[in-house]
Design goal:
Oligomer: single chain
Structural class: mainly alpha
Number of domains: 2
Radius of gyration: 24 Å
Order of helices and strands: HHHHHHHHHHHH
Helix content: over 70%
Shape: elongated
């Protein structure tokens, strides 16, 4: 019974976050991977923590307050770095859900170990661990994910963002373990504030996603129509490409033109799929998408850094752009 009390609340909250994602940005397979990494990282943390305590002779209470938070947060965040490297999170919404899933998985294993070692613990302990400790783990990893994806989207220096994120969650985790406030009051505070925080965050983030879709979609459709109808030279984008003719070889200009057309086509289709998901329809799958993505990659390689930077006024191949194409 203790396991159920200490695990069901965090799983219900994770399901609640998943349902809040109206754009269906969160992929089920990656959500399960996040949960699985939470299990693995908890096992690794247990082995590392017990090993260090045994070797160092440090009192367990001191270790849990000062060193354990750092080790646990780093292990949980490994999945977040993988997520960003694979371009599988594009906004605060999906980053937060994936992060909370890692923390939830971690808490499930940690609480199960606690049940095994303290089978005679009372109901109050299980409530505190199920609503307090578990939510703290999920919230901290979600915060790391949001801070890192936020830095990516704003083009900030990633090393600085990593340091700030880890210092922040270390302080939160460490203060939680200090028990300056009664554990029950800490639990009540987390239960009352965390859902409100996530709801406000999701509402704000979804407005940004909607604005991004509306602004980029219309402009990209217009430019793609101009290219397909042979009227690109009548647009400002066409004027800009004409200026580049004096700086690049003809074959490079052709590659730029192909790159622009193909990117716009794929970008429009990626946004179309996001809109379909938002309205409850399955995204359209096209047989030639994989080939076109490979062609974009090949064109990008041929253009090189100079060619790609020259197209920056028309195409900004940043983290958001790469994530968007990954949705296909």
């Amino acid at each position: 019974m203790g396991v159920l009390i200490s695990t069901i609340p965090v799983l219900l909250f994770l399901s609640f976050l998943f349902l809040l994602d109206s754009f269906k940005l969160v992929r089920r397979n990656w959500l399960l991977l996040a949960l699985a990494w939470g299990f693995v990282s908890a096992g690794l943390a247990y082995m590392v923590n017990t090993g260090i305590v045994r070797v160092s002779g440090m009192p367990f209470d001191d270790y849990s307050r000062y060193l354990a938070p750092a080790i646990e947060e780093v292990l949980k965040a490994v999945f977040i770095f993988l997520l960003l490297a694979k371009k599988k999170a594009g906004f605060l919404i999906d980053a937060a859900v994936y992060g909370f899933a890692v923390g939830a998985g971690f808490a499930l294993v940690e609480n199960s170990l606690y049940v095994y070692q303290n089978s005679d613990a009372g109901w109050l302990i299980w409530i505190i661990r199920g609503l307090g400790t578990a939510f703290m783990h999920g919230g901290c990893t979600a915060l790391v994910a949001m801070m890192l994806i936020g830095a990516k989207l704003r083009g900030r220096h990633q090393p600085v963002a990593v340091v700030v994120a880890f210092v922040t969650v270390y302080l939160i985790h460490g203060l939680f373990n200090q028990f300056y406030v009664h554990p029950l009051l800490q639990t009540v505070g987390i239960v009352l504030t965390l859902p409100v925080f996530f709801v406000l965050l999701f509402n704000q983030s979804e407005k940004r996603v909607q604005n991004w879709l509306e602004m980029e979609f219309s402009s990209e459709v217009e430019l793609l129509q101009a290219i397909n109808s042979g009227k690109l030279l009548e647009t400002k984008a066409g004027d800009y490409l004409s200026l580049l003719r004096s700086s690049f070889q003809p074959e490079v200009i052709v590659d730029m033109y192909c790159y622009l057309r193909l990117y716009l086509e794929l970008s429009v289709k990626a946004k179309r799929n996001l809109m379909l998901r938002e309205n409850g329809f399955p995204p359209l799958q096209e047989a030639d998408i994989a080939d076109k993505l490979l062609e974009v990659k090949a064109l990008r390689k041929r253009l090189g850094v100079v060619g790609e930077r020259s197209l920056a006024p028309l195409i900004r191949m940043n983290y958001s752009t790469l994530w968007k194409l990954n949705q296909l």
